[in-house]
Amino acid sequence: LHMGKTMKEDLTVVVKYIKDLYPPEFNVFSIYAELYHNYFASQAKKNAESHLEDKDIYLLLSWVHNIYPKDMRKDHALAKELDKVKLGSLLPSSLSKELEKKYLDSEEVTVKNSLSKCLDKEIQRWKEDKEPEKLNGHFQSELLGIFVIQSIYSGQKRAQDISSAVGEELSRRLLKELPAFLRSYRDAFEEFKEKSKKHRHYKPILIANINNCWNFR
């Protein structure tokens, strides 16, 4: 963040006050831009090759695909001059792809575990002596129907914010996880139907789960 802010502010000063003090053939702005970019890229590469936590991988990918090319290089004060300079990406393509794979693998596992924990909580609720919650006057499981959908959607949204390609790949992966989750949900529900017919809130729980189907569709 500090490097990005410094580069943006300093290059703005070069555009407004410095480059016109030199003859055009000196290409003063290009020299400044390339030096700043090369240093920024070397630091990004150094970070990418070190051990990074998941949140750091996400931030670095956001800089590579989003913040640096869109917010910084498309800034109204800099865009015209930067378009003349071929700076390239902050990271080599191979290293960027490696980080993307780590991020996608981690996010896929995170969402998968989140869905599994959600189902475990729901099964535990069925065993309690409590009537299901009502939403808009109908029995429904807010935890299951809403939380599962939000987990998948927010995962897709985070990936999409990095780049459309990363978003599409995560969506493809999560659309494999959802049927697997739904099969586990169905199996657990079938087991409850068979073994818990004497449960005091048996019927409301059945209705709540049937009502969840619309949300999942």
From TrEMBL:
Region forming the signal peptide: none
InterPro entries associated with the record: EXOC3/Sec6
Domain of life: Eukaryota
One cellular component term from this protein's GO annotations in UniProt: exocyst
Molecular function, one GO term: SNARE binding
Pfam families: Sec6
GO biological process, one term: exocyst localization
PANTHER family per record: EXOCYST COMPLEX COMPONENT SEC6-RELATED, TUMOR NECROSIS FACTOR ALPHA-INDUCED PROTEIN 2
The protein's name in its UniProt record: TNAP2 protein
